[in-house]
């Protein structure tokens, strides 16, 4: 998951991933810190946010190549230990069945793509969740309901 800029959005995305429900296979989350400068523990940095959620989520920080989103994804893929990859951005809220649904649909020769629902107020929602606890983020995500079929 490439992360560049303020890590407030990242906190919401990681909180959603920490709330994956029953049937979710083992997984790891790689956050590629693609911010210029050293990867640090400053408040609000990807390293700090990943550290906050480390007890709830198997998350690792990978230094980014600073060559854009595609290069950051490639760096994350190269560092991955699992047999399957699911790519997310750091501003995506997912449901509690997100990873289980991808695992269920997995086929060694298939590319799966999930539905997304663009919310007109998504930027405002993500800003409002910037300092929220993981539980508050999960409640907000649940209130959105499922994506339309």
UniProtKB/TrEMBL annotation:
Pfam families: Glycos_transf_2. Residues 7-108 form the Glycosyltransferase 2-like domain. This is Glycosyltransferase 2-like domain-containing protein.
């Amino acid at each position: 998951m490439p992360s560049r800029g303020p890590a407030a959005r990242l906190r919401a995305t990681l909180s959603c991933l920490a709330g994956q429900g029953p049937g979710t296979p083992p997984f790891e989350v790689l956050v590629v810190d693609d911010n210029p400068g050293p990867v640090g523990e400053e408040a609000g940095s990807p390293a700090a946010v990943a550290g906050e959620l480390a007890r709830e989520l198997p998350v690792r920080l990978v230094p980014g190549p600073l060559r854009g989103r595609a290069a950051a994804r490639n760096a994350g893929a190269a560092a991955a230990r699992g047999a399957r990859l699911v790519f997310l951005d750091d501003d995506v809220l997912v449901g509690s069945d997100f990873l289980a649904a991808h695992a269920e649909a997995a086929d060694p020769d298939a590319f799966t793509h999930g539905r997304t629902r663009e919310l007109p107020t998504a930027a405002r929602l993500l800003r409002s969740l910037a300092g929220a606890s993981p539980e508050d983020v999960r409640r907000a995500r649940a209130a959105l309901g499922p994506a339309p079929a």
